[in-house]
Amino acid sequence: MVRAVLPAALVRGLPEDRDAERCDPEELREKLRRHLVELHVASWYDATLRKPCHSGRAERRAGGPACPIRHNSQMRQSRLFGRTLRDAPADAQTPGHQLMLRAAIARPLASGLYTWLPLGFRVAKKVEQIIREEMDRIGCQEIEMPVLTPAEYWRETGRWDLLEPITFRTRDHNGREFMLSYTHEELVTHHARNEILSYRQLPVMVYHFQSKGRDEARPRAGLLRAREFVMKDAYSFDADQAGLERSYALQYDAYTRIFRRLGLDAVSVESDTGAMGGDVAHEFQVLIDAGEDSILICESCDYRANQERAERRLPDAPAATDVPPAEEVATPSVTSIEALGTFFDAPANAFLKTLLLRAGDEVVAVILPGDREASHAKLRKLLGVMELTFAGDADFVRAGGVAGYVGPRGLHARVVVDTSVERRGYIAGANKRDIHVKNILPGRDFPDAERVDVHDVVAGDACPRDGGRLVLRRGVEVGNIFAFGTYYSAKMAGATFLAEDGTRKPFVGGSYGIGIGRSVQTIIETHHDDKGIVWPFQVAPYEVHVVALPVNDESVCRTAETLVAALEGNGIEVLYDDREDSAGVKFADADLIGIPFRVTVSRRSLQNQAIELKSRAGSELELVPSDIAAERITDVVRRARSAAP
Ligand SMILES: [Zn+2]
């Protein structure tokens, strides 16, 4: 058994021990150790066997110290691939974007495409491992689906066409079409219809880590909006709605734990389901100014929603009773709401604005009060499109609208009236050049049967639940969960199981995503000071940063290297700064890279038989006697590990 983990070269010459199976393992280890001392490899043995690395669990994919050879391959900063930068490139947009580049976490390859450098790779893999542990904990099983996904599955649900504007496509040499994975609902549902035959196999949850492609028109802020990125997606399959709700709740709780462990203060907000289908969805948002999402939060209850789907309590406006007949008014060259306000001496909400959009072959007129903006997300959802298309000249002619003077009366189009349009008289375009109409009344002068909430809710609006004041915050969406029900299974042939009552029923599903790179950068956005990154312990690229000063001093070098070897032997992850740089450069880099503990071995401290220990987050220096330094630092790191969430 012990033999099995030793390289053949070391096992050769091991004293025969036919009784090994019956030996006390401790006794056998001691015997083996004595032999290894003779072979001058006892320290290797100590490092790998007696003190098994702590992070076998944490580093499966990180290539971390789970491998015995890695334990002794010190990470010397002089060999580190990736150099720190004194200044951030001018186009780095957020604090996290700047620090990610300066600290050599990741590098751009092209717009929206990033390479993890070694330090960032380690962080990303630790983030993945935390997610993996929490997925495993709720019984979600890890799989891996390809990046290239065949068109036929997407065609089954209609998303091949729907997703066209935002996805990368390719063909093989036979002309077969593929999409670079956008998400994997269709693909995992395809597997489920082959693997799951009966209700007895439900519920099932699976997840994978995989690269996604989004043909973003505007990648921004480094990893916050990239064009290729790894996500963890999980998918649940249940027999009914109640089962889906249980799976959704399990994922919701797992997400809460994951973000706490990542050091991210993420709040759940109600979100739009967009291209994912279904009605119930939450995003996990970290509320920081660097975020590009707009989140409305009630000051008096726990209502939180992405602006894309936020609602508001409408003022209680009684329907007007005696609105005079509609009347045309000459308004030469007066077209904007602002100009109309001056012309009529009336506030913006005295007017109606009419948007003409194209949805497939249909022209859709959207009517809003003059003081409200249309929500593009709500309109996309209403029209079932990924991108809005505004009506062209031909559509105006077809609908009978006149640009600048378009109004709801007499339009040949599907008319959608926003819920904030009240039942009173308004002023609107007359669909005639240089003419508006006043006293135009919804329902009387134009159809208002199709009432839909398509306006942007803004700061100061009333909470839909309790009427409290809504405030607007910026947020980064680090995760999302969707309960889409039968959205996919109902469209995909044979995506059914044999139910308990003997009938065939479609799977009831949900999907659950977390962006890895975006999470890493959001950690940086929220964990830094003016000198650099301050990693939460559990995701830091290394645990201890040993700095030798100066490295060409023999005693300093010997002490530092012995210490590094001892720490690594104790299973501690160490970055060793062995570069021949000045103290200023080395300390600045240590602060920039942000490893939780900095250990300085310097000529000056060694004169007092001590080394310096400092935490990145704190300011005090601790002088540790050099003869017990390895034990003391190991103890500090182990305490930090157990204190980590
Ligand atoms: Zn509220």
Written description of the protein model:
The protein is α+β, with helices and mostly antiparallel strands. It folds into 3 domains: 240 residues, BirA Bifunctional Protein, domain 2 (2-Layer Sandwich), CATH 3.30.930.10; 126 residues, YbaK/aminoacyl-tRNA synthetase-associated domain (YbaK protein, Alpha-Beta Complex), CATH 3.90.960.10; 104 residues, Rossmann fold (3-Layer(aba) Sandwich). Strand 23 and strand 24 form a beta hairpin. The strands form 8 sheets. Strands 4, 8, 9, 10, 11, 12, 13, 22 and 25 form a 9-stranded mixed beta sheet that branches. It has a 6-stranded mixed beta sheet with strand order 1-29-28-30-31-32, with helices on both faces. Helix 2 runs antiparallel to helix 3, helix 5 packs across helix 14 and helix 6 runs antiparallel to helix 10. It starts with 7 loop residues before the first helix and ends with a helix. The protein is 29% helix and 26% strand. The N terminus is likely disordered. The protein binds zinc ion (ZN). The site of zinc ion (ZN) has 8 residues, from loops.
CATH class of the largest domain: Alpha Beta
CATH architecture of the largest domain: 2-Layer Sandwich
Report the structural category: alpha+beta
- What ligands does this structure carry? zinc ion
Largest sheet descriptor: 9 strands, mixed
Computed CA radius of gyration, to the nearest angstrom: 31 Å
- Unreliable stretches covering 5 or more consecutive residues: 1-23, 44-72
**Averaging pLDDT over every residue, what do you get?**
88
CATH topology name of the largest domain = BirA Bifunctional Protein, domain 2
Count of helical stretches = 18
Distance between the termini: 35 Å
Shape: elongated
Task: Summarize the amount of helix as a percent range.
Answer: 25-40%
Could you name the CATH homologous superfamily of the largest domain?
Bira Bifunctional Protein, Domain 2
- Total count of domains: 3
